[in-house]
TrEMBL record:
Homotetramer. GO terms for molecular function: 3-oxoacyl-[acyl-carrier-protein] reductase (NADPH) activity; NAD binding. Belongs to the short-chain dehydrogenases/reductases (SDR) family. This is 3-oxoacyl-[acyl-carrier-protein] reductase.
Amino acid sequence: MKLLEGKNVIITGASRGIGRGIAEIFADHGANVAFTYSSSEKPALELEKDLTKKGVKAKAYKSNAASFSESEKLVAQILTDFGGIDVLINNAGITKDNLLMRMSEEDFDTVIEINLKSIFNMTKAVQRTFLKQRKGSIINMSSVVGVKGNAGQTNYAASKAGMIGFTKSVALELGSRNIRCNAIAPGFIETEMTGKLDEKTVQGWREAIPLKRGGTPEDIANACLFFASDLSAYVTGQVLNVDGGMLT
Ligand code: NAP
């Protein structure tokens, strides 16, 4: 059964990793996918081609999620290109890890702007469309780190915890218009982001996870599928940990 037949979806940061996994599974479920990237043009254009081969409409857009004006222009362009928007997935994110003692102001600000300010930018940009159609699903990619904190990631943890507060507030504010907003808190997912860690640290994470493995982009994409589709029509303001039991 295709759960998103004919739905138009925006995914930020889908040139690789989790975003790419979401784009692929959503296309398999019949969704038209508009997605962004920041600098990885080649993989983004390859993904556009791969998704199109699945028989859906797909388009890559270079857009900095941290920029309010770029996000507004992006959404206007997607509305012109796709004719509507049903689902927004705020997935773009970065890390700039350091102990607080050594963290620069710039690294703190950059992570907050790309991870947290971006979801304000994009949610504002789609809000009018969702209000008019009295329907919409917004999914914010938080992290277990936003729920429990992590040494060496004060900037990242603050951004991801902020996303949870934003998610719950949007759910309360827009629920009466049938606009739902939920967050996913992935645990340790094996992508380029976590590929920067040394093998010993990675092995330590895997052993600490009750399901004894790192997650895959598909694990996260399947949770997104639930929140994007009518299977979750009565679910809003929630944070779903997709972490192999890490936070249990
Ligand atoms: P990734 O492999 O590093 O991919 C990040 C994606 O975000 C790329 O497509 C990148 O585009 C895009 N991006 C970065 N800065 C951007 C900007 N300013 N504007 C637009 N797009 C931008 O990361 P990932 O592991 O897939 O993570 C995806 C999301 O899940 C992030 O929000 C991350 O915090 C969250 N998460 C990941 C894990 C994990 O274990 N991997 C765990 C919890 C939460 P380019 O390729 O052009 O740079």
